[in-house]
Design a protein that fits this description.
The structure holds two protein chains of two kinds. Chain A is α/β, with parallel strands linked by helices. Chain A has helices at 4-18, 36-41, 53-65, 76-80, 84-93, 121-127, 139-151, 197-210, 228-235, 253-263, 286-292, 297-308, and strands at residues 2-3, 22-26, 46-48, 69-75, 99-103, 132-134, 156-160, 164-165, 181-184, 189-193, 215-219, 222-224, 240-248, 269-275. Chain A folds into two domains: 2-165, Thiamin diphosphate (ThDP)-binding fold, Pyr/PP domains (Rossmann fold); 181-308, 3-Layer(aba) Sandwich (Rossmann fold). In chain A, strand 13, helix 10 and strand 14 (269-275) form a beta-alpha-beta unit. In chain B, helix 8 links the parallel strand 4 (209-214) and strand 5. Chain B is built from nine helices and five strands, in the order H-H-E-H-H-E-H-E-H-H-E-H-E-H. The radius of gyration of chain B is 17 Å and the shape is globular. Chain B has one domain (12-274): Rossmann fold. By secondary structure, chain B is α/β, with parallel strands linked by helices. At the A-B interface, helix 3 and helix 5 of A face helix 4 and helix 5 of B.
């Protein structure tokens, strides 16, 4: 098992070996992103701006205009919340070559409560025209998304969870921006998720298969760009789908799916799991919050069984 | 690289006069604009583009050019007229200001207008970005200088003070921050809306090397800018004391002219005063 943030750090160390333009900006968040090995190897390539998220994003934009390739790394709630207008204007509208890494999204901070929960980073980033948006789920996918973001000229957002995991994709897995990843073929119901919830959906699918339910399991690491035809095609053949995300139900994965089902006339039932309108998630351990919203493997399984009744 | 004009102060004043006339004509023709702000910053922009900034008219993207960011993006009108005066954009383009699909929108956009480095309009963004540009120069041992022009009302945005801490902390002596200190903001006088003074002491306390000048006097502006090139391990802050609406008596120092434009007889009267 590897902590997926370590996979990010290992990747940027590799990239920095051959490119001294790569720089990482943190806002007192060096432990949050476990960046110590990078700092030890390349202390001159880390900029700590202190607890000042607006300045974090603004300075990253400036450094990119000066020819560098900045990655920012801080807690997702303060990135997308505190520096919302900097993300919009300095990164997206100005189309600067900055890679924003939002750490510990969703309920990752659990008991620390709603100040630290981040349930709107995907919808916020997706609302800003041009920025590409990724939520990788395992160490290999984190590494590939990070390498891709480095090479891609322009704004990229990576939702990077704190999570220990083994790789779930085959060893020859090749991440492709925009492409949905079908983890298992099935004909009864589709489960679609993004980020580390994918691991819960895998367990749910195994339990459902044991009960004789055939599950099409889809991982969507790429929310923008999105090959909508490929996703529609992946959903064809099932009559129901469940989406699962640690995010508000508005503007994230579930919304993408419901829009797609309507636009393409797919005619399948959809149940969106996430945080509904009008509430903050409780300040509780992450596992309990997931359970409360049926985002644990059991809740996802039960939701599927109800859909198929 | 050097400034393509290297004009002397008297000649810069002539350029300022011409830029101010363009502002009156352009805003009147467009039927909108921030006339007071445009006229306030004119002498600073003229001093920069005709004397201080190092750039190549034939290679505006040259990586070693000095970087200028107009953080007070609502001063776009004055900025475009200065760029036209310097021949960076065609003067005939000024007639398209604010029109559909114009390359001269109401706030500067780098994808549209040559020499614009960064998209401003929302206040409090230019200084953090400029600090990043200056830090990137330090990290890469490059010689370009970063100059940012802020409005004074804009200083009410907290992001400026976050960036100021960083500018001093990272010893960005290749960063020159100019404050267009005309004392007015949208609603009224800055000191009435949200008192900023003593600005010099505040900036000094934040770690800047602070200088005060008459921001409508090119001689003083240029002398001051030149004195900012000494490496002191501190970012430079120029409090440029200006008159909002400078050059036209009935526009000067009037809050209502923040985004008013001359109409009818006012147009001719303004031009006469500027000749």
């Amino acid at each position: 098992m590897t902590e997926i943030r370590d996979s990010f750090v290992e990747t940027i160390i590799e990239l920095r070996k051959t490119d001294d333009k790569l720089v990482v900006l943190v806002s007192d968040s060096s432990s949050t992103c476990r960046i110590k090995p990078f700092m030890e190897a390349y202390p001159e390539s880390v900029v700590n701006v202190g607890i000042a998220e607006q300045n974090l994003v603004g300075m990253a934009a400036g450094m990119s205009l000066g020819g560098m390739i900045p990655f920012t790394a801080n807690a997702a709630p303060f990135l997308m919340g505190r520096s919302n207008e900097q993300v919009k204007t300095d990164i997206c509208y100005s189309n600067t070559n900055v890679k924003l890494v939002g750490l510990n999204p969703g309920f990752a901070y659990g008991s620390l409560g709603p100040t630290h929960h981040c349930l709107d980073d995907l919808s916020t980033a997706l609302s800003f025209g041009n920025i590409e948006v990724y939520a990788p789920c395992d160490p290999e996918e984190v590494a590939q998304v990070t390498s891709y973001a480095y090479k891609k000229e322009g704004p990229v957002y990576i939702r990077l969870d704190s999570f220990k995991a083994d790789n779930i994709h085959p060893s020859d897995y090749k991440f492709t921006p925009g492409e949905p990843v079908v983890l298992s073929e099935g004909k009864d119901i589709a489960i679609v998720s993004t980020g580390t919830i994918v691991h819960e959906t895998i367990k749910a699918a195994e339990n459902l298969e044991a009960k004789g339910v055939s599950v099409k399991l889809i991982n969507l690491p790429s929310l923008r760009p999105l090959n909508r035809d490929a996703l529609a095609s992946a959903l064809s053949g099932v009559s129901a789908a469940v989406s699962a995300e640690e995010h508000t139900l508005y503007g994230g994965l579930g919304s993408i799916l419901s829009d797609l089902i309507v636009e393409k006339g797919l005619g399948l039932k959809l149940k969106k799991l996430g945080v509904p309108e009008g509430e903050f998630a409780p300040a509780s351990p992450r596992g309990d919050i997931r359970k409360g919203y049926n985002l644990d493997s059991e809740g996802i399984m039960d939701t599927c069984l109800k859909m198929l009744k | 690289m050097k400034n393509p004009f290297c004009l002397k102060p008297l000649d810069i004043s002539e350029k300022s006069k011409s830029i101010r006339q363009s502002i009156i004509h352009m805003n009147s023709f467009a039927g909108a604009g921030h006339t007071g702000a445009d006229l306030s910053e004119t002498d600073i922009l003229a001093s920069l583009y005709f004397n201080f900034l190092r750039y190549d008219l034939n290679d505006l993207k040259n990586p070693e050019r000095d970087r200028f960011i107009l953080s007070k993006g609502h001063g776009a009108g004055g900025y475009y007229c200065a760029l036209a005066e310097a021949g960076i954009i065609d003067k005939s383009l000024l007639e398209t200001y604010l029109q559909k699909d114009s390359t001269l929108p109401g706030h500067p956009v780098r994808q549209k207008t040559p020499a614009v480095e960064f998209n401003t309009g929302a206040l409090g963004h230019g200084l953090p970005v400029s600090a990043g540009l200056a830090l990137a120069a330090k990290k890469q041992n490059r010689d370009y200088r970063t100059i940012v022009l802020l409005g004074d009302g804009e200083l009410e945005e907290g992001s400026n003070w976050e960036a100021s801490m960083s500018a001093a902390h990272f010893k960005l002596d290749n960063l020159i921050v100019i404050v267009d200190r005309n004392g007015l903001q949208l609603a009224d006088r800055t000191e009435k809306i949200m008192a900023l003074e003593p600005l010099d002491k505040k900036f000094e306390a934040f770690g800047y090397s602070v200088r005060k000048v008459d921001g409508n006097d090119p001689q003083q502006i240029i002398d001051c800018l030149e004195s900012c090139t000494a490496s002191e391990g501190k970012p430079h802050l120029i409090l440029a004391e200006t008159t909002k609406g400078k050059g036209v008596s009935f526009i000067e120092d009037q809050p209502s002219w923040h985004h008013r434009i001359p109409v009818g007889d006012e147009i001719q009267k303004a031009i006469e005063e500027l000749e």
